[in-house]
Fold:
Amino acid sequence: MRFRNPDPGAKGAVVAANTGGLTPDPGAGVQLDGLTRRFGGRAVLDNVDLTIPEGQFVALLGKSGSGKSTLLRALAGIDHGVAGEGLLRVPDRTSMVFQDSRLLPWKRVLPNVLYGQPRSRRAAASTLLGEVGLAGREKAWPGELSGGEQQRAALARALVGEPELLLADEPFGALDALTRIRMHALLRRLVAAHRPTVLLVTHDVDEAITLAQRVLILDRGRIDVDIDIDIDGPRDPAQPQFQRIRRSLLSALGADPIAA
Structure:
């Protein structure tokens, strides 16, 4: 685990563990203490405190502009040049998947999955391509893959380095409904097999309930709702518990549960 001071004015990305405020929790996969991010003087993230236990799958909901992607980028350490303060404690091995696959079009599938990894991970990359349903497509070009297949390759790339934390920024948002259902099942299998801590940003309430053990709602830069998903076994939108949680989340988001 590493501590990071999110103030881009600070010298160096990594700060000592005794840099005030944050007491390490050995069972935590992620810890935030007073995380603030500002754009043009406006606090997009406002003094956010959050602990995610190791191995927990958390979904993050919120209206557009609530700070969801900003939070993910802060955890990934890719929000350079943004004013802010607070402390983060995140694993050394962190990876991220996005709404678009971000595969390099001039590299074939296997080199894309291996990008940024040592050659010693080649066998692991091939195994992961099998896990995501792309066995035999190692030499295909990204342009030869469907949108769902490209996201499968992106998931393989995200997991090939054995991340302790997987950040996902609406990875299925551009896919059709049937492909999304298949990708939900795939992600559940991958998380069960590789056991990273997961933070998924989504606008889809049903997706959050289907996948996550815990759902957060971010509103005006603060965590406004934090609930556990207390549904045992497979998640079915027809389940009374599923519908109850769905109504609560939609209401918290300011949507009409009946109209939705």
Observations:
- Helices lie at 68-76, 109-114, 122-131, 147-159, 177-194, 205-211, 240-252.
- The radius of gyration is 19 Å.
